């Protein structure tokens, strides 16, 4: 009980760190909506297609499907903390710019509460915002003169989630999770007109609650399927705006609070497959997810929302988990992820894809603790029809700790 309270305290403390830390994104596409959805996962998921709805929570926490918690190793305590770094090149028709970001990507704990059930608590970025628009020229209405505008955006939303999974039978597991979504998106617009400067600062705070349901079924010891459903929800928004005008020797300012329109998150449905082959040395997972953005009836000044399709494929190989030879106990992984995007600009989707490779490096012979390292290369958007292309290299580190509770040592 003391350990559980300590972990909860850590999670609440780090929630403040996430809310105040530097952005996890430098994508210009984070300008629309609530930012770029964070697709990073927990544990080994990042190198296995970033979905994994049918994977269990045996040695790594599966935060994608709460039903996986119904199949946990007894007396185990799983803890995962992640770090993500990304180097990307942003290309348009005129120039190319390199950017680098990095920060914590998740902190998650999970443990069984009975022979048939388990719980997890996690804090994961939900969306990321980080864009800079410099030197935008605008025309002064009723005049031939122009003024320069610079826009900077940062922040994003966080997902603080409690999940529960239960085994109805030896083959069927179900689960549910509740997510508190919260965060602030800041935008500062600086307008320069000859000798005067107008600065408009907006602090947009969103919050809401989302429910996620899941199920897993084992057709055999080697074949499993998984299903997830995220129910639609409305996020409430509030805005604090401050306006400051700087003339030669005069400064004027005012501040106002307004209620923002609700932002609707759509229904999400996902299905996954997992198969073990070569006497459990080789594992293959394939997943598909659809997010029904059209039904939200929302629009954005950049374009219109469309239904989103995500595909993930992953392969993992481990020769012998009990071998005395270290490299035979290492996990070797590779995966592919495709996202059709939920926004269409100039009749073109902002889609993205990535390929990944990774390893799971064991830390101890006695436990399943390991360091999961994943490298991904991908592309988002394209250089055509006024769009922007992002080429990115992403490196993620997840320390997955597997502790044991209530086990008495035979020898000190």
Descriptive labels:
single chain, 412 residues, mainly beta, Porin, 4-stranded antiparallel beta sheet, 5% helix, elongated
CATH class: Mainly Beta
Q: From the 3D coordinates, which CATH architecture would you assign?
A: Beta Barrel
CATH superfamily: Outer membrane protein transport protein (OMPP1/FadL/TodX)
Total domains, how many?
A: 1
Unreliable runs: 1-22
What's the arrangement of strands in the largest beta sheet?
2-3-4-6-7-8-9-12-13-16-17-20-21-22
Principal-axes geometry comes out as elongated
Euclidean distance between termini CA atoms? 24 Å
Alpha-carbon Rg, integer: 23 Å
Task: Give the DSSP E fraction (strand runs of 2 or more residues).
Answer: over 45%
Q: Could you report the average pLDDT, rounded to the nearest whole number? A: 86
Structural class: mainly beta
| Main beta-sheet strand count, sense and barrel state | 14 strands, antiparallel, barrel
- CATH fold topology: Porin
Proportion in helices: under 10%
Following the backbone from N to C, one meets helices and strands in this order, namely HEEEEEEEEEEEEEEEEEEEEEE
In DSSP terms (H or I, runs of 4 or more residues), the helix count works out at: 1
Number of strands: 22
């Amino acid at each position: 009980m003391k350990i559980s309270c300590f972990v909860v305290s850590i999670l609440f403390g780090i929630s403040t760190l996430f809310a105040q830390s530097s952005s996890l994104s430098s994508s210009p596409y984070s300008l629309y909506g609530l930012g770029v959805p964070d697709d990073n996962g927990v544990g080994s998921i990042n190198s296995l297609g970033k979905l994994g709805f049918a994977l269990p929570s045996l040695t790594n926490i599966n935060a994608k499907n709460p039903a996986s918690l119904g199949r946990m190793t007894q007396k185990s305590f799983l803890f995962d903390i992640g770090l993500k770094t990304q180097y990307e090149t942003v290309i348009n028709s005129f120039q190319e710019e390199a950017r680098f970001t990095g920060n914590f990507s998740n902190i998650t704990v999970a443990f069984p509460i009975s022979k048939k059930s388990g719980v997890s608590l996690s804090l994961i970025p939900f969306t990321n915002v980080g864009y800079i628009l410099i030197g935008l020229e605008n025309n002064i209405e009723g005049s031939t003169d122009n003024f320069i505008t610079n826009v900077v955006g940062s922040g994003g939303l966080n997902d603080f989630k409690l999940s529960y999974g239960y085994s109805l039978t030896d083959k069927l597991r179900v689960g549910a999770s509740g997510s508190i979504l919260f965060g602030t998106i800041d935008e500062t617009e600086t307008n320069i007109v000859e000798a005067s400067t107008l600065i408009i600062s907006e602090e947009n705070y969103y919050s809401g609650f989302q429910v996620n349901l899941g199920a897993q079924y084992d057709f055999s010891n080697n074949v499993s399927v998984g299903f997830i459903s995220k129910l639609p929800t409305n996020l409430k928004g509030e805005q604090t705006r401050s306006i400051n005008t700087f003339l030669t020797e005069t400064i004027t300012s005012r501040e106002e609070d307004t209620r923002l329109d609700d932002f609707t998150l759509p229904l999400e449905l996902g299905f996954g497959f997992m198969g073990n082959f070569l006497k459990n040395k080789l594992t293959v997972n394939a997943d598909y997810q659809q997010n029904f953005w059209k039904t939200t009836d929302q629009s954005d000044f950049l374009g219109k929302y469309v239904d989103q399709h995500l595909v993930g494929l992953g392969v993992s190989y481990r020769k012998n988990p009990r071998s005395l030879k270290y490299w035979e106990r290492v996990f070797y992984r590779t995966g592919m992820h495709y996202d059709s995007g939920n926004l269409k600009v100039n009749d073109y989707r902002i889609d993205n894809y990535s390929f990944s490779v990774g390893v799971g490096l064991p830390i101890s012979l006695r436990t399943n603790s390991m360091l999961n390292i994943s490298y991904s290369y991908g592309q988002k958007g394209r250089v055509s029809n006024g769009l922007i292309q992002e080429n990115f290299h992403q490196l993620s580190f997840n320390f997955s700790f597997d502790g044991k509770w209530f086990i008495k040592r035979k020898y000190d």
